[in-house]
Give the backbone structure.
Amino acid sequence: MRSPEEQRLIREDIFRWLDGKLGSGRSELSRGELQDYHFGPERIPLVDTARGIRNPQDFEATLTIMTSVKSPYGPESITEDGFVRYSYQSRDGGDNVKLRRAFEQKEPLVYLQGIRPGAFVPYYPAYVVADDSDARQFLVALDESMRFFGDPLHMTSDERRYAERTVRSRLHQPVFRAKIMFAYATTCAVCSLKHGDLLDAAHIIADSDSSGFARVSNGMALCKIHHAAYDRNLLGITPDYEIRIDKDLLAEIDGPMLRHGLQDMHGRELGLPTRKADRPSKDSLAVRYAEFAR
Ligand SMILES: [Zn+2]
């Protein structure tokens, strides 16, 4: 067993390493990257090849847990109330013991949400906040603020409201972003800019559905300027995927950003994902286009 001090250093180093990997507008990592984490010269894979939990022999408590897209619970296993319910491993023994230890010792871990085969959105630091032995599940909080609920298995109505808001605003967003960037090959649908740092996953209709992740068909990859212009109805998109610019804006005279960045986009065709199911919903576009046209 490694010393407690060394285990703590490695956990902290993993979080820093993830911070570094997720710069430049990325929100997902590949299985290969997760298997190739190094602490100094030593390689410590962060995912297990065969199982959804990573419990190195020389660690007291679990390092990572994952939900793969193949799991029976589907890719959307962050519950409405903002926790992940992680079932006891059937092959009892070490795995459950080490997750229980993560709970008792409040050890932070990484939760990996599978979004495609071999692609994961990490949430960290995540904490096991309850051990529900009746349901044979551990309850994992993905947002640090939710560690401090009195009894996560019996939330007060205030806590539940807070949790649902957190899920909508913070927890669903990284998964939505990862899916949108993949569908649009990290390219602005309006101007074709391909710089992840300058791109957003934009909603077509505001994401009001608390129960599910926003569908890719309710989103588009847009650069910062075109996202803002779309949200403020200075730029419209017809249900037939044609870009329109507000007519007052078309008449303005100003520098190159207005001319090339906005006016020249008028009449262009929207860049679309190759997969048909990922393309923007024509119904949602029509609702928004009616607002723009008003
Ligand atoms: Zn753009």
About this structure: The chain has two domains: 4-168, 184-293. The chain has eight helices and 13 strands. The CA atoms of residues 183 and 273 lie 5 Å apart. The chain has a mean pLDDT of 89.
